[in-house]
Amino acid sequence: MFASDNAAGVHPAVLAALAEANRGHALGYGADDYTARANQAFKRLFGEQAESFLVFNGTGANVIALKGLLRSYEAVFCSAESHLWIDEAGAPEQFLGAKLITLPADNGKIRLDDMLPRLGDIGFQHRSQPRVISIAQCTERGSVYRRDELQAICDFARRHGFYVHIDGARIHNAVAALGGDCKRLFTDIGVDVVSFGGTKNGLMMGEAVVVLNPELQANYAVIRKHGMQLASKMRFLAAQFLAYFDQDLWLHNAAHANRMAACLAEQLHTVPGARLMVPAETNMLFVEIPNAWIAPLQQQAYFHVWRADSRPGFSEVRLVMSFDVTQADIEAFIGTMRRLATG
Ligand SMILES: Cc1ncc(COP(=O)(O)O)c(C=O)c1O
Questions:
Q1: Are residues 84 and 196 in the same domain?
Q2: Sheet holding 51-55, edge to edge
Q3: Which atom of ligand 1 is nearest to the CA of 62?
Q4: Is residue 343 scored above 90 in pLDDT?
């Protein structure tokens, strides 16, 4: 149950929308009314100039998003803990043919200072040319870049001729945590392209590449096909997003998951032996627990061990809350922890 937010099922409203879309025929490859309406919904979120390109999955969204931003002799800055670097099986390197330059992660976030030494590479013929800063919002540690932090990254990028890409596989958790709207949080401060997640927050499958910079939009349709992420029955991706945005379901789901994480974090303080490793900002918690607790807790609600033997006798585990986790699930989990703590 706490392994990942993609272990949760499909939200009933999304499932109903899929059934509803399954009537009659519609033109393929996005030439249907559902896709047109989904694109309008993204414009309402990010501003009129945004163009969206629906894709199947998060890795696909990231590589398609980046493909439109750089050439093979250029490079992407990303964190050393990023999904891009660690968990995409080399797809970015293979598909982009470009270099990834990793930066140390500070609670999941990159620091501008760590890019400074690479600025000397610009124009130097022996070096890959930095072109894109890619950050995850929220990060792989569940932390969130504040708007001013993101603004500073975008300003830095502009000064040096870089583009900014957001890996938003969990953008909903970040937006729910920050409050405010996507236009203010991303478009207005100069983000160029967003990988907009959906699967981790109630969709069956489906993400979107949302291109905010109008100067970059022209090639994305072809890039998506070239990258094997063009769905012929696109209406079924689009219909999910329509349900997702209807009455802000996406934000309700994410806010609920964040609340469940906050609730679990609060209760963890009452369990001797459990230690929260980073502040709870979104829907993910990183908690150090005695190794002996892992198996019995996993039996109750499966989760992944993040860092085995983080210190002798203890491991750091990741607990991820989904849209359908309940207060009762949290209480049952904490109850088991307390029993284990008191022997
Ligand atoms: C931060 C982040 N980005 C991207 C992805 C990619 O998602 P997918 O597994 O759909 O390729 C994930 C999935 O776990 C993720 O956590």
A1: yes
A2: 51-55, 207-211, 193-196, 163-168, 129-136, 74-79, 99-103
A3: 4
A4: no
